[in-house]
């Protein structure tokens, strides 16, 4: 879990009802994140060292998104509290609600300034449009092999 912070917008209030039900899963995500942050990165490329961190952050955000939007298992107050306390990426969840971005892996993949020719990432290209030889292509930022919604 993100550390409890008491300055600049983080709430000092206790979490809303229902947090106890998902706290165990959020702790598992926090432990996996700590392991990924402290994992050795020798032998990996510079960008590959952060791929696990991106994946765990995506999984945690998707877990909270599914709880609220797909299964209606948590309340609006708990959902807002989780976003406010940085348990999930609010910008990524906002994109998931838009058509064409349902499988988006990270926000860096759609930022044009991060890529050559001011376009989106290679993982956003549908697999049907890629050559057969390029089927093993991964995003250099997050390691995604394809997050186009039409795949």
From TrEMBL:
Subcellular location, principal: nucleus
Subcellular location: Nucleus
InterPro entries assigned to the protein according to its UniProt record, in alphabetical order: BUD31 (IPR001748), BUD31/G10-rel_CS (IPR018230)
Family: Belongs to the BUD31 (G10) family.
Keywords on record: Nucleus
Region of interest: Disordered: 1-20
GO biological process, one term: mRNA splicing, via spliceosome
Organism the protein comes from: Pyronema omphalodes (strain CBS 100304) (Pyronema confluens)
Cellular component per GO, a single term: spliceosomal complex
Protein's recorded name: Similar to Cell cycle control protein cwf14 acc. no. O74772
């Amino acid at each position: 879990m993100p550390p409890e912070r008491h300055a600049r917008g983080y709430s000092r209030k206790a979490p809303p009802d229902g947090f106890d039900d998902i706290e165990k899963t959020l702790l598992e995500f926090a432990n996996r994140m700590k392991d990924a942050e402290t994992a050795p990165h020798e032998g990996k490329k510079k960008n590959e060292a952060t791929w696990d961190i991106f994946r765990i952050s995506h999984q945690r955000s998707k877990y909270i998104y599914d709880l609220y939007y797909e299964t209606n298992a948590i309340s609006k107050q708990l959902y807002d509290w989780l976003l406010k306390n940085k348990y999930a990426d609010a910008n990524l969840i906002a994109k998931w609600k838009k058509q064409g971005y349902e499988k988006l892996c990270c926000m860096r993949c759609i930022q044009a300034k991060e890529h050559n020719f001011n376009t989106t990432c290679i993982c956003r290209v549908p697999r049907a449009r890629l050559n057969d030889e390029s089927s093993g292509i991964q995003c250099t930022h997050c390691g995604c092999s394809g997050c186009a919604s039409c795949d």
